[in-house]
Design a protein that fits this description.
Blueprint (H helix, E strand, L loop, with lengths): L1 H7 L6 E6 L2 E2 L2 H21 L8 E9 L2 E8 L16 H12 L3 E7 L1 E9 L3 H11 L7 E2 L1 H5 L23
Parallel strand pairs: 1-3
Antiparallel strand pairs: 2-7, 3-4, 4-6, 5-6
Helix pairs in contact: 2-3
Length: about 170
């Protein structure tokens, strides 16, 4: 879907790199992650790629213990406007905060050499844990997917996201 969003927005020059750890997710969580990725990408298209200020969008989904982190990073100039608390503001970021809270997550925004939107959330909550336990016992399987499906088929030869831990999102360097 992200490939299509970039194409219909006239941003064919943008390289989309996707990396995801394999993880089972319930459909409601997966749907929310798709909305988060699309909103963050739309913000990058509007504020970076449509102005030819960047050429790369990285999307990662990483697992660390009982947490997952979805990160969407662009290589633009960063966020210029800050809210009254010194924190980035705007409708797009408000939407992202609301979506993150729907899955029990926290939104983090890093800005400088590019912008990185990260959502860290628990892998399983209440009902999800029970469903996963039931699936492990032979009662079915939870919805399986990964971030590559969000992006669609990504282009051949794209560099993979650099390694690192769940809490560190490396800045774009090139």
């Amino acid at each position: 879907m992200l490939n299509e969003l970039l194409q219909v927005s006239g941003c064919d020059h943008v390289v989309l790199a996707v990396r995801a750890d394999p993880v089972a997710l319930p459909l409601d969580t997966l749907t929310t992650l798709v909305l988060i990725a699309m909103e963050a990408a739309t913000n990058s298209i509007k504020h970076v790629f449509s102005k030819a200020a960047g050429r790369r969008l990285d999307v990662t989904l990483r697992r660390s213990g009982n947490e997952l982190e979805l990160a969407i990073a662009d290589d633009g100039p960063g966020l210029p406007d800050r809210g009254s608390a010194g924190r980035p503001s705007g409708l797009g970021l408000s939407i992202l905060e609301s979506l993150a809270s729907q899955i029990g997550g926290e939104l983090y925004v890093q800005s400088g050499s590019g912008t990185v939107v990260r959502v860290v959330f628990p892998l399983m909550r209440g009902r999800q844990r029970a469903a996963s336990d039931a699936a492990a016992a032979g009662g079915g399987s939870p919805q399986r997917d990964n971030v590559a499906a969000i992006a669609g088929t990504h282009r051949e030869g794209m560099p993979a996201w650099a390694g690192g831990g769940m809490r560190s999102v490396p800045p774009y360097d090139g």
